[in-house]
Amino acid sequence: MGIKTDFIIKNTQGLYCPYGDFYLDPQLPVHTAIISHAHNDHAKPGHTQVFCTSPTALIMQLRYKKNAAQYFTTYHYKQTFKIKEVNITFFSAGHILGSAMILMEYEGIKYLFTGDYKLQADATCNPIEFTETHVLITETTFAHPQVKHPNPAKEIEKLNNIQGNIMLGAYALGKAQRINKMITDYCPNKKILVHHGILPLHTLYQKLGIDIGLYSPYNRKLIKQASNQYIYLVPPLTFNSYQNAKNVTRIFASGWKNLQVNEANSLYISDHVDWDDILLTIDKVKPTLIWTIHGDGQKLQQHLENKIEVKILENAY
């Protein structure tokens, strides 16, 4: 029957599929939403019906309480369900716990929506699982040939060379749990203290059987003892509010250069694909058409010119 060029339409609510009458990670409340993962730029509160993985539902309920959604319907990875005439299957995106790539099949054509995804190893979530598709709808957060994410283990080992206490900024969901586990594994002499804003998510991960490593709740007296080699793991707002913190080395874990607070102690750890990983994904899923979202798809469009058609659905966040 051929690819439907209007299978996904961007409107004021977000990305809409008229053939299934649902939205993908909508930005405003809608009747039917399919949520790829629980980061708050993808999982908004107030929807009537949400389809997602079980961990995503639990995280949304933890964060948004009664406003999370009126109804949740959850599915395991590779469990197919139908919304109207569209068959839908979740595949692990490797981004955070519960993150899913959303495979949609309609009239024999497959459309794969990646959400946010990564290929690097992460002990705190399922690894990415590729599936072939006709149309790849991919994020392009770091879709630039100059962006090459370093080895995360080598990055985290940098913390071993820092004497005294460290204030380490990380996003509370996904990144904080990954960082906690990596410090436990690669920096055994460091002791982790966790900010109260991160603790509920740590607890939820552990209830779901995820080993996130060793940690203790933040203790103000301990962090003042520089000889103890503590790492105080904090969310971005707390990190930014202590720009002049004394007797600690401030570091922020991110793939973004502008979020590194000093060149001497950078920590480039990203939960997104870099340029090479996007190209590898394309090779794995074998699309005949690519639509880009969440970032800048122009470099990808230029790189694949005369090879695969690239259509830019969103050219900014």
Question: Can you describe what's shown?
Answer:
With 317 residues, the chain is of the alpha/beta class. It has two domains: 9-146 and 272-312, 4-Layer Sandwich (Metallo-beta-lactamase, Chain A); 152-265, Metallo-hydrolase/oxidoreductase (Rossmann fold, 3-Layer(aba) Sandwich), CATH 3.40.50.10710. 20% of the residues lie in helices and 26% in strands. The protein is built from eight helices and 18 strands. The protein has helices at 54-64, 152-156, 175-186, 199-207, 220-223, 236-241, 275-285, 298-303, and strands spanning 9-10, 15-17, 22-24, 32-34, 47-52, 69-74, 81-83, 86-92, 100-106, 109-113, 135-140, 165-169, 191-194, 216-217, 230-234, 248-252, 289-295, 309-312. The longest helix is centred in the middle third of the chain and has 12 residues, at 175-186. The mean pLDDT is 95.
Which structural traits does this protein have?
single chain, 317 residues, alpha/beta, Metallo-beta-lactamase, Chain A, Rossmann fold, 2 domains, seven-stranded mixed β-sheet, six-stranded mixed β-sheet, 8 helices, 18 strands, globular
Tell how many strands the DSSP assignment holds.
Answer: 18
Strand-pairing-aware structural class: alpha/beta
Uncertain regions spanning at least 5 consecutive residues: none
Overall body shape: globular
**Named CATH topology of the largest domain:** Metallo-beta-lactamase, Chain A
Helical percentage = 10-25%
CATH class of the largest domain equals Alpha Beta
Total of helices: 8
Order of helices and strands: EEEEEHEEEEEEHEHEHEHEHEHEHE
Q: Please name the fourth-level CATH homologous superfamily of the largest domain.
A: Ribonuclease Z/Hydroxyacylglutathione hydrolase-like
The averaged pLDDT comes out at 95
Beta-strand residue percentage: 25-35%
Distance between the termini: 32 Å
The CATH architecture classification of the largest domain is 4-Layer Sandwich
Strand order in the sheet with the most strands: 7-8-9-10-11-17-18
